[in-house]
Amino acid sequence: MSRFTIVNLLEVEDSMGDRAPGIEARFGRKHLDSRDLGVSLFRYGANLRTPMAHSHREQEEAYVVVAGSGRALLDGEVVELAQWDVVRVAPEVVRAFEAGPDGLDVIAVGGPKPPEGDGVMGVASWPGDDV
């Protein structure tokens, strides 16, 4: 492993592709060749609300809003997000995002995770949605 690595997240492949129109997900962990750190870019189109949520078994994350605004759904609680807000999320917290009128760009920073991954997918139950 080298002593440092530089990666432009906009040059990392979009892992979402056509699976989720309006969302880009660019995962930098493997490109950084980091033992303990993951850094990813998520871009949500204007007014887009994610129908899926996720949590982790082990990995704590922090999300930095670098452009736009929106909301996060954290264990059923909706919180407003503005540019340069940082939200730390414990592994077990179920989370999802909704972009505001100008979209939402978020850098996610995650700690160590098991080689087999630890993400747990679920459905986002936004307040007011018909379930």
C-alpha termini separation: 48 Å
CATH architecture type: Sandwich
What general form does the structure show? globular
β-strand percent reads over 45%
Averaged pLDDT: 94
Biggest sheet character: 6 strands, antiparallel
Low confidence ranges? none
Which structural category fits the helices and strands? mainly beta
Q: If you consult CATH, what is the topology? A: Jelly Rolls
User: What is the class in the CATH system?
Assistant: Mainly Beta
User: How many domains, as an integer?
Assistant: 1
CATH superfamily: Jelly Rolls
User: Can you write the helix and strand succession as a string?
Assistant: EHEEEEEEE
Q: How would you summarize this macromolecular structure in one to three sentences?
A:
By secondary structure, this protein is mainly beta. It contains 1 helix and 8 strands.
